[in-house]
Structures are given as structure tokens and as C-alpha cells.
Amino acid sequence: PTAPVNVVVTGAAGQIGYALLFRIASGQLLGPDTPVRLRLLEIPQGVKAAEGVALELEDCAFPLLSGIDITDDATTAFDGANVGLLVGARPRTKGMERGDLLEANGGIFAPQGRAINAGAADDIRILVVGNPANTNALIASAAAPDVPAERFTAMTRLDHNRALAQLAGKLSVPLTDIKKLTIWGNHSATQYPDLYNAEVNGKSAAEQVDEAWLRDEFIPRVAKRGAEIIEVRGASSAASAANAAIDHVYDWVNGTPEGDWVSAAIPSDGSYGVAEGIISSFPVTSVNGEWKIVEGLEVNEFSRERIDASVAELVEEREAVKALGLL
Ligand code: NAI
């Protein structure tokens, strides 16, 4: 029997945590042959609710779940951790400036980065879900100098899945007919969902839709889908976010299918003119457990402008975080 993989979930008592933990414990994160031990990290006020979730996990009698630890101490949570899903974050509240938001999150992600640096297993893989996800991942990575930077990633897979669904709906094709779609940049309203390199049944996706739809409906709909969910559901997306986190980690560990790619925010090596070192979304494949940027794609003028705008936002966030002494 294989040893259990230690999976840390921060913000475990929150709504994404509730949608995520049962799927991890059922084997959907790592596959049906890998037992998991869950580590739930919460703030002190969240510990009791996390204990309640643990009771329910127990009641599912998942054969792959080998144990659950609950703590409010990051060092304890990340000791020996193999996978970290960093979901808990400080949300933007009314009147909060970007600097305040980044500072508050620095107070969460820098200590978690230090805890990862101190005790995580050598194969640690981090996915940051909590917003502002890309820059929170950068903060955590900077606080973990002994962990290779490429182990810190941020989630744009929900945006990717939203874009797939919108395009499939528009063209009335099954989702499986669509390949090579990309989200570029920041997980924010500036993100750029790229159809110019995407294919539907092997043919250019952009050529099958009109430019007005692409520019005025598709791009804003995908970028503002989070706000649409809040408006209609009365709460922010949770199950779909948890689903995307599962997709991201599953593909990272198990590999992406031949002839296709996915989107993930990973540290830039300067590809496609994206400022080196920021954690930005790219077209990626996973080979032998490592994300690789898909190289050599054509970036037309329309795409260039939008990628540059989102990257500029990430560079500004990095500058703001630097000014706070977090990098
Ligand atoms: P929630 O408010 O329901 O839950 C957050 C939980 O995190 C709470 O239980 C809270 O006690 C806990 N928490 C706060 N600070 C913590 C810390 N320092 N350590 C451990 N736990 C801590 O929020 P929800 O809906 O689960 O969302 C979580 C985050 O995910 C938010 O930042 C949200 O913006 C983000 N998100 C990101 C998406 C993406 O595509 N990247 C999509 C949807 C949400």
C-alpha cells in the first residue's frame, strides 16, 4: 500500500473548503490509488466549524481518507505537506484600497510561505486560490526561498473552464470538441481568454465566431463571471472554484492529455514578453509532474494588447508588494 499524501487545505471551514474537501477525500484530487491525509488550517474562530466538517468527512467513510488533522498553526499544518491548497484569504471589504488588500494578505501568505519553507516535503506543490491569487502566490513563494519557485502556482483554471463552457454554448458543440484554449495574465477582470489559438474540431475557434461577440460578449462575460455568480446566486462561486482546484492539481500530478493544454498561473520565465518572475497565467502542459509553458504560439495584435494590460497589472501588484517589504 502507498503512504498517504499529506494535503493541506487552508480556509477549510469556508464555502470553497466545504465543496473541496469531500472530493479530495474521495480520491478525485490525486486519483483512485492514492490515500490522503487531510490537514485543515483555519484561523482560531474557524477551527470549530472545521471540526464539524471533519465529523462529516468521517461519516462518508471514504476508503482513501487515512486521517484528518485540524490546526490554527501554519507550521504544524505544513509540516511534511505534499500538496497545499491555499484557499483562505482576506477578502476586499468596502473602502479597502489595493495596498490595504495586499498588506492584509501579506500577513497571511508570508507566514504560510515561511511555514512551507520550514517543513514541507521536498515534492510540495502549492495552488493558491485565495484572492488576489497570483500575487498571494508570489508573496508565499518569496517567503519560501528554499522551495523551487515553480512549485507555487495560482488558479486560473476556473476562468479556463468558464471560457470553455461559454464557447461550447455559443457554437452548440460538446465541450470535448474544444482544445487549446488559453487564459493569459491575472485572475482578475483584466484576464485575457484567447480564442485565436483555440481549436474547435481541429479548426480555428476565432474563425467560427464574429469578432464583436468575441470582444464585447465572450471576453467580458468570462472575466466578470464571478460577479455574475454573486448577483444570481447571492454568494460567490464555490463548487465551481473547488472543481477547478481539483482539475489543476490532478493535471499537475497526473499530466495533461496529448494534443491539448490547460491554463494555470505559474512563474514567468519571460516567455511571450511576460515580465520574468511574476505569477501569470499561460497555456501550459504538465509533463512528469511539472508545468511547462506551451511555446511558439502566435500572438496577434489584439491578443498582445490584452496580455500586456493584464501583465502590467501584475507588475503593479508586485511593485506594491515590494513597497510593503514583502518581496
Ligand atoms: P469563505 O469566506 O467562505 O472562506 C474563507 C475561509 O478562510 C474562512 O473559513 C476563514 O476563516 C478562513 N481563513 C481566513 N484567513 C485564514 C488564514 N490566515 N488561515 C487559514 N484560514 C483562513 O471564502 P470562500 O468562498 O471559500 O473563498 C475563499 C477565497 O477564494 C476568496 O479569497 C475568494 O476570493 C477566492 N476565490 C478564488 C477563485 C479563483 O478562481 N482563483 C474563485 C472563487 C473564489
Biggest sheet statistics: 6 strands, parallel
Q: Helix fraction?
A: 40-55%
Shape: globular
Low-confidence residue ranges: none
Strand order of the largest sheet: 3-2-1-4-5-6
The pLDDT mean sits at 97
What is the N-to-C order of secondary-structure elements (H for helix, E for strand)?
A: EHEHEHEHEHEHEEEEEHHHEEEH
What is the count of structural domains? 2
Number of helices: 10
Q: List all distinct small molecules, including ions and cofactors, that are bound in this structure.
A: 1,4-dihydronicotinamide adenine dinucleotide
Write the CATH homologous superfamily of the largest domain: Lactate dehydrogenase/glycoside hydrolase, family 4, C-terminal
Structural class: alpha/beta
User: What is the CATH topology classification name of the largest domain?
Assistant: L-2-Hydroxyisocaproate Dehydrogenase, Chain A, domain 2
Give the tally of β-strands.
14
CATH class term of the largest domain: Alpha Beta
Family: Belongs to the LDH/MDH superfamily. MDH type 2 family.
Protein name: Malate dehydrogenase
Binding site for NAD(+): 11-17, 105, 112, 129-131
Binding site for substrate: 92, 98, 131, 162
Could you describe the 3D structure shown?
The longest helix has 23 residues, at 301-323. Helix 2 links the parallel strand 2 (36-41) and strand 3. Helix 4 (98-119) crosses helix 5. The protein folds into two domains: 5-154, NAD(P)-binding Rossmann-like Domain (Rossmann fold); 157-317, Alpha-Beta Complex (L-2-Hydroxyisocaproate Dehydrogenase, Chain A, domain 2), CATH 3.90.110. 47% of the residues are buried. The protein is built from ten helices and 14 strands. It has 327 residues and is α/β, with parallel strands linked by helices. The strands form four sheets. Strands 3-2-1-4-5-6 form a six-stranded parallel sheet, with helices on both faces. It has a three-stranded antiparallel sheet with strand order 7-10-11, with helices on one face. It has a three-stranded antiparallel sheet with strand order 12-13-14. It has helices at residues 15-25, 47-59, 74-78, 98-119, 133-142, 157-171, 211-223, 225-233, 239-254, 301-323; strands at 5-10, 36-41, 65-71, 83-86, 125-128, 152-154, 178-179, 182-184, 192-194, 199-200, 203-204, 262-267, 279-287, 290-293. The chain is 42% helix and 19% strand. 1,4-dihydronicotinamide adenine dinucleotide binds at residues 10-11, 13-17, 41-43, 46, 87-89, 91, 108, 129-131, 133, 155, 158, 187, 236-238, 241. Residues 156-323 form the Lactate/malate dehydrogenase C-terminal domain. It comes from Pseudonocardia hydrocarbonoxydans. Pfam families: Ldh_1_C (PF02866), Ldh_1_N (PF00056).
